[in-house]
Amino acid sequence: MNEPDAAVLDLVEQSIEAARRLGVSWDEAVEAFGLAAKALAVAAAKADAGSEVARIELARMNLEAGFSKAVETKVLRNGSYAYH
Description:
Blueprint: H1 6-22, H2 26-47, H3 52-67, E1 73-75, E2 81-83
Antiparallel strand pairs: 1-2
Helix pairs in contact: 2-3
């Protein structure tokens, strides 16, 4: 995966904001994003009649690729954040 495009970065920001707004812990949010990744993989497999196992494995690889990217996030005192 190359550097994320603007739409992907927007999704990241919206996801972080949704977790904060919903009041879930940071650990719960991370687990939820992993669950969402698996759900997206299963939905993709069903949408194109592909292999669910192959799509889940690709999702795991993409999650690892995301973890390998540099990020800078600052949580501010009022609970908001800045992401770059």
